[in-house]
Each structure stands twice: as structure tokens, then as C-alpha cells.
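Good morning,

Both structures are done.
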Amino acid sequence: MAMLRSLEPEWLDTLPPDDPRAQHSRRDLRRINGLMGSAAFVARELVRGSADGPPRTIAEIGAGDGTLMLRVARRLAAPSGQVRAILVDRQPAVSPRTLAALGALGWRAEATTADVFDWLAAPGGGPFDAIVANLFLHHFEAAPLAALLALAARRTRQFIACEPRRSRIALAGSHLLGLIGCNDVSRHDAVVSVRAGFHGRELSALWPVAGGWVLRERAYGPFGHAFVATMDGDGMAGGAAVR
């Protein structure tokens, strides 16, 4: 029987960015992202979703400290022109060093402190080639998550999400993070994240039906759950095709 989805507050969301426990937990998240292979997955999907090479405009919602996008940038082929990247989070956690590292790769990156719903709904922001969400969507109940995805669908031609997989194996793994030096915040939040994670076609069911999207949703690695929505290049109408 599948685990029922349940949401609880995560400790990292309640701590200021300069809190030592929060800083330790963000370092833990970099290792967890590495173990999950999130940067490699996102980079592959960004290339796969564009016939003209890597996208030129990318936004990451719930970007945290921005290091996931930096890892993605390092994996992509050097662009012929600058890539514009917007890192959106409600806490100002992106360091000048991370922005400088993205700049050295030819990316024009900026960090934006904002509520994701306000940012997605704001007029005049322009469309993005891709919007990325990493370990972020599981924070929302179904109704607000559906609203978030509907807003994102109006701002991009490709949406990529890497989330925790809600499974017994992933839950067991989340209880073992102390073995790699994760602190109390990370250990607590990992268990909470898995219980709030996804499986099957749960995210596909929340994506807006109209608009000609191709949806792919699957498990990846031992602990991850991936969702990718790509606007059909032929301008397909009449709904979303699930693959």
C-alpha cells in the first residue's frame, strides 16, 4: 500500500539564513542533491527540451542558496551568448560568491527575494525558456500546488522538478542521513520531505490540462521523483499528453 502524503513544517524554513544550523543544513542539502543526482538530471532535461541547445532564460523557484543552478551551469555546454538566470526564494540565501561563479560561466544571474506566487503572477516578467524547481513542490498541499503549476505554465515552455519520492525505501534512507554528517535540521527535514513527496502521476494530475504540453513523470535514483512538462514543438492543442 502506498504511503499517504502528509505535510509538516520543515525546520530550515523557520531559520534565518545566517543561523549556523541553517548554514550547516544548506551544506547538507548540497550533498543530498549530489547523492540524488539532481543537477545532472536537470542539465540533461534542459538540453533535451530545446532543439536549439541549452535555454537562454532560466528561472529556479525555491532556489535556496543557488548552488544547484551553479552545478547545472557547469554541466551545460558553454553558451554562445549569455544565459539569464533568475533565482527566486523567499529568503535571501544566495551568496555573491555563487552569483560570481555563475557569471564566470557566462551566465547573467540574479537573486530575487519574493513569494513564489507573487513572483509568478507579477506582470511584465516575460516568459522563460525553462523554470526549475528542486526539492520545493513538496512544501505545498494539492490546491495551492495546482495553482502554482498553473502560474508556472503561463511563464515557460519547459518546467522541470526534482522532488523526494514518497516510498518506504526513501523514508528508510532519510533516517540514515546522520551517517554522512547531516545535522538535526537536515535529519528532521529529510523525513518530513519524504512523507510530503510524490509518486506515480501525482504532479501530472495537477498540471493544467489545456495548452499542448507533453508530461513525463517517473522515479529517478533510489530516492528521487522527477516531473517534466514540455510545450510540444508542433503546437499541439487540446490538452496534455502523458508519457
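Second structure follows.
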Amino acid sequence: MKKLLVLLVTLLLVVSAFGYTFYVVSHGGPADPFWGVVMKGAREAGEKYGVDVVYLGPEKFSLKEFIDLVNSAIVKRPDGLVVTITNPVALDEPLRHAIDMGIPVIGINVPDERPIDEKIPYLCYVGMNEYLAGVYAGRRMLKEFTPKRAVVAIHEPGHAGLEARAKGITDVLAEKNIPVEKLDITTDPTKALTLMKSYLTKHPDTDAIFTLGPLGAHPAIQLVEEEELVGKVKIGAIDLTTKITDAIKQGVIAFTIDQQQYLQGYLPIVFLYLYNEYGLIPHEDILTGPSIVDKSNVDIVEKTVQMGYR
């Protein structure tokens, strides 16, 4: 009886210490391979720290559905909330309400870039500097060659992070007076392929394509292979998949930008656990990228992509 009592007390202590529920709400769902890695990071951190992690994301990008998911998570009054600040204006009211309710909030993947007196007062941000990612991509392409014309394929127009990446690219190319346009390719790979093909037909002098995620990179790879444009049209990508690393090794993609998205899922869960347990939290931005992946280092990176950590 005494042993049973000790066991029950021990179990109660474990439940009280580790009985947290954290919600992760992003604008991306399982259809995008990028978010599968983020989900893996959040899940494995939850398992390690004994907390319940609930992941929510629309199947296809929809700002309305995304905001609805954020609100549904807030109603649950979780012990912590992790959110992509995809549209700071739309998220401002619900996240301030959550913070006023005492829910700790951490931003991931896309930050609130507004001035300090306007931005949402979340605890910290874990992710890449989006504008700098675009700058790195533009500069790396210029090391490859000087394009005659470039196009930036954006799969989610209005997404603050993607728009910042696109601006970084266009700002760098504008300094060299290189014509560059944004092209809405949607999140449908078939449509993306058709739209990029049409753009190249209309602008045959286009010799550089920038993609802002796998949903753009994969159709771009198919495009240059099918149209026999490998080496004639250079692709600069952002984010990693096995298809992208293979394309880099084969010379189809010149480079990609890595943001270590596994950390964007894993670290916020660790931080929320430490905050709930001890009141400990990092401040400001914890940058997980950008870094350049090309033929010089793709073999090393490829291993972690295959393992699901990138």
C-alpha cells in the first residue's frame, strides 16, 4: 500500500510538472514539405520535455483560415502559443488578446517587422531574417553570373515573409539595373509550372528564376529540365528538400538558402517549457538563417535533409 501511495504521488508530481499543452499554428500545412520538418521539430521537443504539442495549419494557404485557427487555439487557453506572424496587422488583435489572457506567445518563421512601439509583444522570435535571405540570394546569384532579366516566383502573395524575401532579391538586382518582376505562381505546382513557362515565353531574355520555397522550386526544376534550359536559366532557391539538393548536385539549381526550420519547431517548445517552469526566456530574435547551400557544401547538408532535420 505504501509503495502504491509513493507511486501515485510520483505520478501526480510528473503530471503537475509536465502537463503543459502548447499550440503551434502556422500558415502552412502538410502539403508543403517545409512544414513537415517544422512539425517534426515541435513533436520531438514535446516528446523530450513531456508536453502535449498540437499543430494547426491550413491545407492550402488561406489568411482567413489561418486566423480562424489562431483564434481556435486561443480559445483553448493553452500554456503556450507558437505562431507564424504571417500578417502582423491581421494577427495583432487576436495575439494581443492572447497575451492579455496570460498566454505566452512566441513568433516563428515570420516576424513582426513593424516599429517596436507597434509590433506585437510576443516573447521572442525564432526563425530567419527574411529580407536578409533575399539579399543573400540576390548576391549569390550575382556571383554566379549577371542576369539579363530575372523573375521572382512567389507562391503566397501578401505573405509578409515571402514579400520580404522578394524585396531583398529585387533590391540587390536593382542596384545592377537588372530587370526583375514578381510572378504569382499560386501554391498549385501544376499551375506554377504553367505560369512560369508562360512568363519565359513572354520574356525569352529571362535567364534567372528565384523561388521562395519548395512550392516554387520543384516546378522550376521541372520547367528547366523539360524545356532543356539547364545552364541557360539559373535557379536560385530558398529552403531545402531532397529534390532541391539533388538539383544542386546536378547543376539544375545554382544554390538555395537554408533556414534550419527544424529549429523553428523545436526551440519554441523548449523555450515555452522553460518559461512555464522557471520564467526563463531568450529575448529579441533567435536567427536560424539564412545560410547558403551550393555544390561546395550540399553533400553535408543533404544527409540532414534525408533524415528530416532540414
